[in-house]
Design a protein that fits this description.
3 helices; 6 strands
Length: 91
Amino acid sequence: MFRSKDSAEAIASSDGEMATVKEIIKFTGFPVTVDYDLDGNVRAGVIKSPGNLLVVNVGQYVYRESSGKIGVCNYDQLIEKYEEVTEETAS
């Protein structure tokens, strides 16, 4: 049995609203653009970090590891790698 010693914080990309985009920018420290489909619905956000473009679809999570690495994944992938800590279990 193995447990990751690394930790990560994550934020959900729940919609394309300006407040959500601003939170992702604040969380990552990188610019974000929003991509729309032909019907005008938000399809994804693009995080532009140096030398890397990350695409985050609505419903996915942006995470930041303790090393500073930024990534994108689904909730299931987060809980596979990290034990979820809530305010109640953090203490």
